[in-house]
C-alpha cells in the first residue's frame, strides 16, 4: 500500500515534469504554473528565452497579457497559434533564429491585441497572403516588422486588417508586391524603410491613412504605385534614392491631402509624373536633387490644388532649354542648377553650345488646362480630411501658373489688353 502511494506520487511528479511546469508563487500564495523554462515574473507576462519549442503548446496557460518568445527554436508559426490567448495584448516574436514561415491567419482571434512585434528573426524572408488577417483587434493595434531578413511582402498580407495605429516595416531591401498593403481600413501611421521595390497598386483598396512615410529606401516610383489608395492625410517620401518617378506615379489615387517629396536623390523625373490623381490637395516637392535634366514643362504638370516646387537642385544642360521660355518665374527663381552651373538659380542659366535652337515651346499648352474645374474635395471622409478645404494660397497660385486653371483666361485677357497698344 505504502509502496503504491509512493509510486503514484512519482508518476504524478514525472507527469508534471513532463508537461514542463515549474511553479511560481504569487502574492496570494496561489500557485500559477509557468510553462517550459520560461519566466513569469509578473503573473500576466510570459517570457520564453532560448528554449526549444516547435510550436506553441496547447497546454500552456492562456491568461497572459504579454508573451515574448525570444530565441526559441520555432521554425513555423502556425495558423491561429495564439487563438487560446484571449487576453493577449502584446506579442513579441524576436530573434528566433530558425523561424522562416508565418502561416496565414497566424494571429487570428487576438481580439485584445495592441502590440505585435516581429523583430530580428534572421531567416524570415517572406510575409505571405493573409498572415495578418483575422486578428479582429478591438483596439487600435501597432504592428512592428523590423530588422528581420525580409525581402518580399506578398499580395494581401494585410487583407481586411482594420484599425491599425502604426504599421512599421523596416529592413535592408524589401520588395512590396502588387496589393501587398492592400485592403487595410484605417491605418494611422504607416512607416516603410528599406523599400527596394514598390509595385503598381501596392496599396489598392487601402483607405483612411493618416500618414504614409517612406524613407531610407532605394526604389523606382512606378506608374500607379499608389493607385487604389484613398483618403490619405499625408504622404511623405523623404531621404530616398529614387531612380525614376514615372509618368502617373501617383495616378489612380484619390483624396490625398498632402504629398510631400523632400530631400530625395532622384535620377529621373518623367513628364506627367504627378498626373492622373483625383482630389489631390497639395504637393510639396522640395530640396530634392534630380540628376537628369527635366525634359519638358510637363515634368511639373499636376492637378493639385497647391503645388510647391522649390529649392531643388536640377541638372542644367541643353535638355532644360525649355525653361528659358517658361512663364513661371517662381519656378525659375527658386530652383537651382547643380555643380555644373555653380548652383545658380535656373533663371540665370544660359544653355551654351546646344544643338540648334528649338522653336519656343508653346506653353502653357492646352492639355495643361483640361481639368476645367479645380478638384472638389469631399468632406465625407471623417474629420481627418476636413483640412482639405479649398484654400489655394495666393503664393501658390502665382507659383504654379502651369497648373492654375484660371490662367488661360487671364492670359487671353492680357493678350487682348496688350494688342490694343501694339
Ligand atoms: C539561443 O538559444 C540557444 C539554445 O536554444 C543558445 O545556445 C544560444 O546561445 C542562444 N542565443 C542567444 C543569442 O541567446
Ligand atoms: C477592392 O474592393 C472592391 C470592392 O470591395 C473589390 O471589388 C475589388 O476586387 C477590390 N480590389 C482589390 C485589388 O482588392
From TrEMBL:
Name by which UniProt lists this protein: LRRCT domain-containing protein
Keyword Repeat applies: yes
Pfam family for this entry, one: LRR_5
Any one Gene Ontology cellular component term annotated for this protein: plasma membrane
Entry keywords, A to Z: Leucine-rich repeat, Repeat, Signal
Gene3D superfamilies per UniProt: Ribonuclease Inhibitor (3.80.10.10)
Species per Swiss-Prot/TrEMBL record: Panagrellus redivivus (Microworm)
InterPro entries: LRR_5, LRR_dom_sf, LRR_TM_domain-containing
